[in-house]
Amino acid sequence: MRTTGDSPMWTKNMEEKKIYPSLSGDIKTDIVIVGGGITGALTAHYFMKQGMKCVLVDKNKIATHATSTSTAILKYEINPGLKKLISHVGEQNAQHAFLFGYQAVMEISQIIKEINSPCDFSFKPAFFYTEDSQQTDAMEQECKARQAIGISCELFTKEKNENEFSFNFESGIYSHYGAAIMNPVQFTHDLIEFNVKKGLEVFENTHIVDYNLSSHQSILTTEDEFTITAEKVIICTGVNALEFFKHEKPFCQLYRTFSILTKPVDNFKGWKESCIIRNDKKPYTYLRTTLNNEIIIEGEDLAITDLEGEIANMGDRDPLALQQYHQLLRRVRKMFPQIDEIKTSSWFHGLFIDTKDGLPFIGKHPDYPGAYFNLGYGSNGILSALIGAKLISQDVAGKNPPELEIFKFNRY
Predict the structure, then answer these.
(1) pLDDT in tens, 256-314
(2) What single string gives the DSSP state of each residue in 88-104?
(3) Smallest Cα–Cα separation from 299: which of 286, 310, 288, 312?
(4) Nearest alpha carbon to residue 29 among 223, 207, 187, 226
């Protein structure tokens, strides 16, 4: 499959980023982290905090695949909603999952301060809405369920709040906290560089072709026949990790999602506090702004049913991709008619992996005793990456965090 298409907005200044060598000999380490995106970077950060010897490898360059196509919307809520998630995983687990996301946004902000990253981080309110009048009661119950666990949000209705937004909605949940935006590629590079100064070893263009994952000691072999011997292996390779589970019944759904970045606009009329916006349709539409007064809109997802098909391997400027981009542009213009001159600056598409309950897969898999997986499938990949990094590093340290049960494999 082709992971990305066109030119992701975050990679414009990649030539300025630090370049790391490829592996050129056999090495030994405590922890080897496979995957140099934002998930791998966060995982390395938490292990380095424990003083463990860590190696991070990527088969390409740092932050050039899924991380580069992320819209970097950090939002505590999990797409099915709290009420629906309770039906999947039970009340306590669902509440914990929402609160983990809420706390993770704050923790990301603290890491950014710690490493002094100029990654355009900014807290934002968030608005989740419906245009369907039949969903207003459900939206009200969802809002109350979130408020009951301490989330700062309120119910907006068409009657009381229609002047807050220029687009039509019947009701929605306006969350005052628990959401933010940033540049994910800048953050990933800064986080890795911060930990390199503390002893993290990083190897780009290092393709692992064989995994001998023993419960006592694992050996990874590169395509150049060098080996990495490690006590523990942490797989953070996103869509590529599906190769480990080809023999299993599919437990997730792949989509190709599309995004456009507009040129800077003069104002955000009809857009309360330039908040993060998501509707309740499927596929969802997301909108956010940048600190440069640009708009990012993401959506028009296409399901991937054939890994050898057109959607799975869509290239740059594919006619179908252009169709999706134009639809997104029409939508943002329709939603905000008071914003003049909304024009496209760039566009890009990438893969998105959803799960039945919107939760990631974090932890061990019975078939691979020497490995952990930090796979931010489902909602909120970046926040899931942080949650996974914390829980896995705690488990390796012998703390046995019970929260891993929420995100385990074979949970459904």
Answers:
(1) 999 999 999 999 999 999 999 999 998 899 999 999 999 999 999 999 999 899 999 99
(2) HH-HHHHHHHHHHHHHH
(3) 286
(4) 226
Peptide bond into 283 cis (omega under 30): yes
Dihedral over Cα of 109, 115, 119, 120: its sign? positive
Judge residue 407's burial from the number of C-beta atoms within 10 Å of its C-beta, 0-12 exposed, 13-18 middle, 19 or more buried. buried
Local structure of 74: helix, strand or coil: strand
Q: Which domain holds residue 273?
A: 125-177+251-355
Any domain includes 147: yes
Q: Are 140 and 269 part of one and the same domain? A: yes
> How do beta strands 171-175 and 227-235 pair?
unpaired
pLDDT 10s digits, 217-263:
999 999 999 999 999 999 999 999 999 998 887 889 999 999 999 99
pTM value is 0.96
Name the burial class of residue 348, with classes exposed (0-12), middle (13-18) and buried (19+) by CB atoms within 10 angstroms of its CB.
buried
Return the CATH number at 304: 3.30.9.10
408 backbone dihedrals φ, ψ, rounded to 5°: -70, 160
Same domain flag for 173 and 260:
yes
Residues 232 and 326 in one domain: no
The Cα-based distances of 367 to 214, 342, 377 in angstroms read 10, 51, 19
Distance CA 323, CA 96 (A): 40
Q: Residues 331, 263: one domain?
A: yes
